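At this stage, I put together one protein's amino acid sequence and its backbone structure tokens, which the following lines show:
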Amino acid sequence: MKIDQYKLITAAFLLGIGLASCSGGGGKKETDTKADTEEPRKVKPDGLELTAEQMQSVGIVTGPIAQKNLDSVIKANGQLAVPPQNKADVSILSGGIINHISVIEGQQVKRGQLLAMIKNQDLIKIQQDYLAAKNNFTYVQAEYNRQQQLREAGAGTGKSFQSAEATYHAELSRITAYESQLTQLGIAPHKIVNGNIVSQFPVLSPIGGTIGHITANTGAFVQPGTSIMEVVDNSKIHCDLTVFEKDLMHVKVGQKVSFQLTNQENQLITGTINGINKSFENESKGVTVHAVIKNKEQKNLIPGMYVTALISTGSRLTAAVPVDAVVRSEGKQFIFVVTQKNAKKGTVKFKKAEVGTGVTELGFIQIKPLEELPALANIALKGAFYLQSKADGGAEEE
């Protein structure tokens, strides 16, 4: 009886171990199944893949990068300026009070046009001294003529003639000095002789042009030599460009320049280099290059405007693609390079490659790849914009 109870307990113990083993195996199998059913991690595709039908429907055309004879250019920055002879500071020779200003800023004036009137009390004294010298000269001249006649007749003395001659030339020089002084102040001497004494003198424009900044007001006292306004003639406006040492040997007088006004909606104008400085500017290792602007359209060009210029240094064989083959994104420029063609599937893979660009001519644009491309690489000559749109859409989806 005891033996049967022992066998029963042993059988129950072994059954428990078996159930535990089966339970452990079942848990492991469930884990393995969960791992097997987990989806594989997505891998970002390398580039874009299009079928032949897609390429044909959107007009994508592929081909090699061409070699074209395009103008080689040098990029330079600078600003507009006028020659010294086309910009004048309007100053006064004698101090006084501004009685009237006849112009306003931005007004067009001609050479010799009245700009302002200056009151000066010393001016009255100059006119009085001139009239006194003029009246006294009548006597001096008569005495000189009389002594000259006596000398010719042999009746006079040489000493009296010499004294009269010296007085005559001295008084004549004094009158000439007064007349020159009055003329510089804008007063006609012959009008004073008739008794027209004035207490103010005019300020005339030294050149024709546009009135710039006016620095004085009516009623203000100005010292001699003080500039009260400026006149600028923009008809001879030119551009001062800074060309660095590495590019200087390629720049010559007579080369064509294309200017882009950075603050004028990128308006494009042309010009020609007419001068190259022979010294560096400060420590920038840059040389100032002067270019004449062809402003036939009479664009509103103002000295001080900043420009970006492309200097044409001659044509040379360079890598070029159609303008439509280059797309712009996030301030960079790209082309789409064919990386793989699958003849069986009829698909083509493209990869975006960043490039630098140069001159644009006859529908082609100069490029310089910023990464190494395969030899004889094909690119998307047409339809690059569609590829860019698809690339942007794919990136957002991922």
